Amino acid sequence: MIWKWTWKLTESCPEGRGIIHFIMAGEQKVTVSFLVDKAKKRVVLAEADSDFVDMLFSFLTLPLGTVVRLLNNQSNFGCMDKLYGSVETLDVRNFQTEACKTMLLFPQSAAAERCEDLKVNIDSTEPKPRLAYACRKPDCCSKATCLASSVSNARCPHCRETMDSPKTWAKGDVQFVKSGDKFMITDDLLISLFSMENYLSLIQKLGVEDACILEEKVMDLGIEEERKDQEAEQNPGNPQEEEEEEEEEGCPEGRGIIHFIMAGEQKVTVSFLVDKAKKRVVLAEADSDFVDMLFSFLTLPLGTVVRLLNNQSNFGCMDKLYGSVETLDVRNFQTEACKTMLLFPQSAAAERCEDLKVNIDSTEPKPRLAYACRKPDCCSKATCLASSVSNARCPHCRETMDSPKTWAKGDVQFVKSGDKFMITDDLLISLFSMENYLSLIQKLGVEDACILEEKVMDLGIEEILTLLGRFLVSNSPLTDLVFKNMGVTDDVSKGIGIKKMIQVKGEGNTEAESKETHVNLILNKSTNKVSFVEVGEEFVNVIFSFLTLPLGSLIKLQTKKSFLECVDNLYQSAENLSLDNFKSEECKNILISPKLAPFFGYTGSMLEMDEIAPRESSCRGCYVCCWRNDNTGCSVSECAHGVKQAYFRLLNPKSPEGSTEIGGGYAKGKFLVTTDLCVSQLSASSSIQIIKNQDISLSDLVMKRATFGEIQALDLLRSAVTSKTPIDDVLNTHQKAKVKEEFGC
Fold first, then answer.
1. CA 63 to chain CA centroid, nearest Å
2. What is the pTM of this model?
3. Rounded to whole angstroms, what are the CA distances from 700 to 85, 527, 689, 733?
């Protein structure tokens, strides 16, 4: 529900109305979120950013006469209305100078310049704070000292004429508090920095126990909104519901996989040997095209897996983590490109997978594209910068870099063509031989060949996407594909005991924690479980970086075991296959020693993951001339722009300054993270929504401080892909272990 507050300047004050309303062209507004108690019809607190707090603090700088004037002599502020009225009615001859009366009716503030650029400035009348008024006669101002007045009707000491020629001082500092912070304001205007500790303390102090009685009301505090309010009253329909209905029409019910339609779609042929009686796949036989596709699964970033499966991967809590990035405002990220990098994370092996016979990830950005600035001045330098993400900002002109340039093509695929491979139902791959074949058949207890039947299938994009989805949640993905067991979901981590996997420091784990941050756990006292956590950007950057990790890194980071059977088997297959079966040693290494794409690492990451080096090239002359000359360097010593040799380099899309250095984080600010990895900006409204969703009493919440370091980060990654409550699994377990260690109980 949106409420509007309107301030409007009127020549006469309407009866009973004590506030002057101002009209401004190009009116600015400031948004404030009010948490209200519906039953008692009172504001519990307001939440706002620095713009609103600056406005409130500016009240302290207003001279009392200005307060009375702004409230049209109806301030009810003691006897100040009558005192101000006296100045208005007294004749100008009762004052030392004409300017004296003006100074009392329009008293100036010592902080006027600082308040000049408030987002909504309630005192925008003359005199302007940076104006001084000089005499209009040149003779009076052509002296060694030129005199002026801050009041427009003072008299020139030389000619005694009115000084009314305006002159402007240089601009100084503006506003009071730093931007970027969130503040909490009580109904009686006590202001504090927003934190869950302050928030819960206030809620409990006010005796609010049931979150259901609280409601958020958002108000745009601006200048002219009355007409829009009248329109809203005349048209009471709910546009939000209409939008939701339209979305439902666009999304077929029960459809969880994105389907791509391609002209002349390629398919790969696979022969399945099936047990007719048990309706299971015994093994599959295929050539290198299918094996390359399976191995490419290991190179897919986790965020790409979720996106390809339309946020319905059931892959631990990754769907919710990815959904959080989608819903968070771009202002919660270091740059616009950061959000794009998490929603479309790039693979270090993307170029190698570009020509797979069936490429399930054929969306933008293309792996061999880089995006330069469209302005020739920015690219005609000795170093031409580009980005692997299309919405990064040019460091020179700050415009979007969206002019596509293509790198030369490199090697493709992984295994050598010509070989035949054997794949088990749980995705163990080996070179086909009678020895391997008979060994597998006997291991599975198949004695009668008559129960076996060959089934040949042509697999396209839809089938490969289905296989990707099944291999994350099932221990028999080939059987699920062939017999269409889509409704069956195995608990792939069943029997593991997630909390028993947690590496608790002090219990046999001697690994040093070199990087640590602190988080505030919000615990449910009744269940002694974590409901959500209040965290800084360091923690959120760690969990957001999970989306950029290739699937194969889950095994590499966790001592060769991800606790996802089919993922482990696929990785083990790449490791066990002979180097002779791969096109090169690099092909094998990219699967068993996965790396991140350039600039996708996080500076404060607690996970040991390297990036591949960013590509670069060079040419004679500048790149603008090179592109104009059909990608051919200049034949003369210098190009038309005076450049002898230029370098084409990638910049870091996470860097607001356009640096070419690696590192940097994705998010900025403070956040709330639920136990199933839903991330939202820290605010009263988001905390109330979480509490309502979990049906918790406000009085049942307690906050504890916990440490988050390298060990916890690895544990959280493992739990994030195998559990629905990773935050509680990891942080609560470590917290309890710490108490046990300290108190010996």
1. 43
2. 0.78
3. 55, 10, 16, 20
Structure tokens at 649: 């380099």
* DSSP per-residue letters across 235-285: ----HHHHHHHHHHHHS-TT--S-----TT---EEEEEEEETTTTEEEEEE
> What is the DSSP secondary structure assignment for residue 439, as one 8-state letter?
H
CB atoms within 10 A of CB 24: 14
Q: What is the mean pLDDT of residues 176-193?
A: 89
Torsion on CA atoms 467, 471, 472, 475, rounded to nearest 10: 140
Q: What is the pLDDT of residues 545-581, one digit of tens each?
A: 999 999 999 988 877 677 788 999 999 999 999 999 9
Contact by Cβ (8 Å): 537, 529:
no
Q: Using the predicted structure, report yes or no on whether residue 504 has a pLDDT greater than 50.
A: no
Tokens 């790409």 correspond to 304
Instruction: State the Cα–Cα distance between residues 283 and 273, nearest whole angstrom.
Output: 5
At 96 the three-state DSSP class reads coil
Q: Which of 333, 344, 341, 330 is nearest to 666 (CA)?
A: 333
- Per-residue tokens: 280: 């299971």
Cα distances from 68 to residues 76, 86, 273, in angstroms, run 9, 12, 89
State the Cα–Cα distance between residues 555 and 462, nearest whole angstrom. Answer: 27
Name the maximum alpha-carbon separation found in the chain: 121
> CB under 8 Å, gap of 24 or more: what pairs does 436-441 form?
437/283, 440/282, 440/283, 441/282
Burial (CB < 10 A; 0-12, 13-18, 19+), residue 261, is: exposed
230/216 Cα distance (integer angstroms) = 22
**Can you give the residue ranges of every domain in the chain?**
1-62+109-123+175-243, 131-168, 268-363+410-492+555-592, 498-535+671-743
712 close to 690: Cβ distance less than 8 angstroms: no
**Whose structure tokens read 């958002």?**
218
pLDDT band at 150; cut points 50, 70, 90: confident
